[in-house]
Amino acid sequence: MLERLRRWRRDRILQHAGIEPALWTHLMDTLPVFAGLDRGERERLRQLASLFLHDKDVLPLNGLELDPSMRAGLAALACLPVLNIGLEVYRGWRTVLVYPSGFIARHSYTDEHGLAHEETSPLAGEAWEGGPVVLSWDDVECSLELDGYNVVLHEFCHKLDMSNGDANGMPPLPTGMSPQEWAAAFTDAYEALCAAVDGGQETVLDPYAAEAPGEFFAVACESFFERPDVLREAMPAVYSLLSRYFRQDPCARLPGGP
Question: What is the pTM assigned to this prediction?
């Protein structure tokens, strides 16, 4: 009975508040990250994005206005990682805050001596455990090229990582995936990246990935969806695990893929 009610609610939302098919087709044909999705995947993503926009409050700030195309594009990027997982993993929080451009974040912490400190830093995006996702629209627009940088994918993959607590690079894994295998592969790749960054070497991933294991996971996810062939060649074990976790194989969606 409960499942029947859920399906009824879902169908009602999609019927009355679904993203218009013509707008959706334009987005899918325009944004390169979606180019390899087949018709069924595009429709499933449209439904997820429509439900996302219904259930989450996407709030523009400081005079920013978000038209239906902007909202739909943001929701599409947010839902791409959960295309084959489902929106349930985004439960427990409700709000997406969108600034026109980069914003200043203030964080307070207490050091080991009991002294309180406050830090400020300019950010393009931020995800809070149990709280909102915060984005800069300028940086969202800069995320539309397949260059490995995508602030929406980055912050929403942090949200996936936070599903079991801190963003530490170990999200809740589906049944059948080994936490030990995950930890070993990601630790090896993270330590190799840190060594390359410390040595001044050029790296496949943005050097920001060396900041912490949680940042490595989020940056690797950006590359997984935007430059999958590059990530698979440089870090095959990481690519394989992400493919099993997301239940997607972006390399297969590239031109000439299987």
Answer: 0.90
- What dihedral do alpha carbons 198, 204, 208, 210 form, nearest 10°? -50
Fill in the amino acid letter for 201: Q
Q: pLDDT for 159-177, tens place per residue?
A: 999 999 899 999 999 999 9
Q: Please give the full DSSP string across 28-83, using - where no structure is assigned.
A: HHH-GGGTT--HHHHHHHHHHHHHHHHHSEEEE-TT----HHHHHHHHHHHHGGGT
Q: How far apart are CA 222 and CA 69, in angstroms?
A: 22
> If you write DSSP's letter for every residue of 146-162 in order, what string do you get?
SSS--HHHHHHHHHHHG
CATH code, 168-258: 3.40.390.10
Per-residue model confidence as pLDDT tens digits over 77-98: 999 999 999 999 999 999 999 9
Please tell me the number of Cα atoms within 13 Å of 223 on its side-chain side: 25
| Cα–Cα separations (whole angstroms), residue 29 to 51, 117, 135, 214 | 21, 48, 24, 32
- State whether residue 96 is helix, strand or coil: strand
How long a stretch of residues is the chain? 258
CA gap 202, 191 in Å, rounded: 15
Task: Please state, as a whole number, how many other Cβ atoms lie within 10 Å of the Cβ of residue 143.
Answer: 26
Domain residue ranges in the chain:
168-258
Distance CA 172, CA 162 (A): 9
CA-to-CA distance for 208 and 164, rounded, in angstroms? Answer: 23
Ordered strands of the 125-127 beta sheet: 57-60, 95-99, 133-136, 125-127
Per-residue tokens: 129: 């455990």
SS3 call for 114: coil
DSSP helix/strand/coil, 145:
coil
